[in-house]
Amino acid sequence: MRNKLTKAIFPVAGLGTRFLPATKSVPKEIMTLVDRPLVQYAIDEARAAGIKEFIFVTSRGKGALEDYFDTAPQLEQELRKKGKDELLEILKSTNMDSGEIAYTRQNKALGLGHAVWCARRLIANEPFAVILPDDVIAAEKPCLAQMVEAFAETGGNMVAAMEVPEKDACAYGVLDVKEDMGRMVSTKGMVEKPKLGEAPSNLAVIGRYILTPTVLQKLNKKKTGAGGEIQLTDAIDAARDEGEDVFGFRFEGRRFDCGSKSGFLRATVAFALDRPDLRDDLQAYINEIAHSAKAAE
Ligand code: UTP
Predict the structure, then answer these.
(1) For residue 280, what is the enclosing H or E element?
(2) Which protein residue's CA is at the shortest distance from atom 3 of ligand 1?
(3) Mind listing the pLDDT tens digit for each residue in 170-189?
(4) Which of 91, 130, 214, 284 could make a disulfide contact with 209, Cβ separation 3.0–4.6 Å?
(5) Is domain 7-259 annotated with CATH 3.90.550.10?
(6) Is the separation of the CB atoms in 268 and 33 below 8 Å?
(7) Does any ligand 1 atom lie closer than 6 A to the CB of residue 98?
(8) How many beta carbons lie within 10 A of that of residue 257, not counting itself?
(9) Where are the domains of the chain?
(10) 242-283 pLDDT, tens per residue?
(11) Alpha carbon of 199 to those of 129, 161, 164, 190, 196: distances in Å?
């Protein structure tokens, strides 16, 4: 029987330079879409996919992230005293049980592949998921749950993939497609950050993965790739070279690149418009500024 997927790695050790100066003291993953930090969306998605062990790869300055998952007795007591039951429930839903969450450190930001490798001792000989909290995906069925369902049929390695315009492919890992089966593609290669015009397809890898322990073995080599970083996609491709399957999975949903300012702003607007308590007011404001912009043309 195929091993059940119970562990997920959340690499959150990056420097977040695109959000400086905010990220000088606030971890990027704690920044909020409306009132929920990015990391909460990632945890909720993992839980919905059946994940039971949450492994964070952190670094210096990410203390706020660890505190976020602890109980806050004083705050809870205050809310209880004031009868703010709804808020109390929201607050309690962010607590993680003891032992459910593990932290390991990446002491130098050597790349995503290296961050995942830092968690190797917490992953036994079993498949594991990787979730990048700065890729937020709005979907009816959460993206990782969609992938877990497909993975139950295929096994192997699986990466979430989406179509991107040719000019944007150089910012992603791009799949070299062997066979296109619609929802899934099999691959014969993967190129990290290809030069303009050299991308093998328009299918880019985004921040959801289901991987085999072979990928961790490949990361042992600590080979640097594009941008001088140890790339996760290179290790996945090396596992494929050794005969393992690597599938691209076209997920259903809308992905926001919250690692970039414009993606973060779009997500903020989209998630706010989805909230009954905010929708009307925000929509009216958007209409108003669109109207003034048009009038000024
Ligand atoms: P990014 O490429 O977005 O890098 O990393 P970053 O450092 O977070 O942000 P910028 O580019 O400086 O603004 C993608 C994911 O990989 C993690 C990041 O935390 C993020 O979740 N990562 C990246 C690590 O954990 N360690 C690394 O060495 C690099």
Answers:
(1) helix 279-296
(2) 259
(3) 999 999 999 999 999 999 99
(4) 130
(5) yes
(6) yes
(7) no
(8) 19
(9) 7-259, 260-297
(10) 999 999 999 999 999 999 999 999 999 999 999 999 999 999
(11) 26, 14, 11, 9, 7
Strand segments, DSSP code E, in the chain are 7-11, 32-33, 36-37, 53-58, 101-105, 128-131, 135-138, 157-163, 173-180, 184-192, 203-211, 246-250, 254-257
- 113 in contact with ligand 1, CB cutoff 6 A: no
12 lines ligand 1 (CB under 6 A): yes
What global pTM score does this model have? 0.94
Instruction: Report which of 54, 66, 58 is spatially closest to residue 107, judged by C-alpha positions.
Output: 58
Tell whether omega for the bond before 194 is within 30 degrees of 0, i.e. cis.
Answer: no
Atom of ligand 1 nearest to the CA of 229: 28
Contact 216, 116 (CB under 8 A): yes
Pocket lining: 27 vs ligand 1, CB cutoff 6 Å: no
